[in-house]
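Action item from last week, closing it out:
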Amino acid sequence: MKYTKSTMLKLVNEERELHDELKRIKSEMGLEKNLALKALYHSTVADGGRYQERYQELDR
């Protein structure tokens, strides 16, 4: 599975929990949005993460 910024943004906009987590990552780690989005992808989507199936649906 490959990271796609546009797909990840769609997922974050649809899932309130991910939206809040993105804000938390940006704030706590001082990351810009693009890097925080990648971090969120690797922690919640990639390699069998909780949102992997939903991400794959959006990516089609």
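Closing note: The chain is about 75% helix and 0% strand.
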